[in-house]
């Protein structure tokens, strides 16, 4: 599918209700719903002033503890991705000519020692974005009804997004406490 056409189709209604209120600990629980153009955590916290400056203040933020597994579930009707942000939005597409080795000069937004994470288990943000652009349902697409899970082992702040719906503001933060 043409990516631009795909993106153009992304402007639908937000606000599909999260199905059920399952909460953590249940086998059926998820922590973050993925709706039409947004991530909807079961609970959100405010981003404090002392968070790193690159953490967006106005996106849904989930707070967990080190060692917690976070489960995203696609409760909507279109494919999404969960892709960790490692640089300012918009830079990746501008640098897709560079190798996927991560050995570039851009600073990573991830906490020191933390691994990159993404649906599709890509090596880095460039590889995930390249896959999305070049392959049908690439980029680690999560189909409706499917899930992605990641266990956070390093405390700190994380910012992530959905590749096709980033222009619609589909972004989230995770704060991992000690
Ligand atoms: Cu999406």
Automatic annotation (TrEMBL):
<dbReference type="Pfam" id="PF00127">
    <property type="entry name" value="Copper-bind"/>
</dbReference>
<protein>
    <submittedName>
        <fullName>Halocyanin</fullName>
    </submittedName>
</protein>
<keyword id="KW-0479">Metal-binding</keyword>
<dbReference type="GO" id="GO:0016020">
    <property type="term" value="C:membrane"/>
</dbReference>
<dbReference type="GO" id="GO:0009055">
    <property type="term" value="F:electron transfer activity"/>
</dbReference>
<keyword id="KW-0249">Electron transport</keyword>
<feature type="domain" description="Blue (type 1) copper">
    <location>
        <begin position="60"/>
        <end position="176"/>
    </location>
</feature>
<dbReference type="InterPro" id="IPR028871">
    <property type="entry name" value="BlueCu_1_BS"/>
</dbReference>
<keyword id="KW-0186">Copper</keyword>
<keyword id="KW-0472">Membrane</keyword>
<dbReference type="InterPro" id="IPR008972">
    <property type="entry name" value="Cupredoxin"/>
</dbReference>
<dbReference type="GO" id="GO:0005507">
    <property type="term" value="F:copper ion binding"/>
</dbReference>
<keyword id="KW-0813">Transport</keyword>
<dbReference type="InterPro" id="IPR006311">
    <property type="entry name" value="TAT_signal"/>
</dbReference>
<dbReference type="InterPro" id="IPR000923">
    <property type="entry name" value="BlueCu_1"/>
</dbReference>
């Amino acid at each position: 599918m043409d990516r631009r056409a795909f993106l153009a189709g992304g402007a639908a209604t937000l606000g599909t209700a999260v199905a059920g209120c399952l909460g953590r600990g249940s086998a059926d629980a998820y922590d973050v719903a993925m709706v039409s153009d947004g991530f909807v955590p079961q609970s959100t916290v405010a981003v404090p002033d002392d968070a790193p400056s690159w953490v967006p203040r106005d996106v849904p933020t989930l707070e967990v503890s080190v060692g917690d597994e976070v489960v995203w579930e696609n409760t909507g009707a279109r494919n999404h991705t969960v892709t960790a942000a490692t640089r300012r939005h918009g830079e990746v597409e501008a640098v897709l000519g560079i190798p996927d080795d991560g050995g570039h000069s851009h600073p990573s937004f991830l906490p020191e020692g933390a691994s990159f994470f993404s649906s599709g288990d890509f090596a880095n943000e460039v590889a995930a974005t390249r896959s999305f652009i070049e392959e049908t349902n690439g980029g680690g697409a999560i189909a409706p009804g499917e899930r992605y899970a990641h266990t956070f082992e390093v405390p700190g702040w994380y910012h992530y997004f959905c590749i096709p719906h980033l222009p619609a503001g589909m972004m989230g933060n995770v704060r991992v406490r000690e």
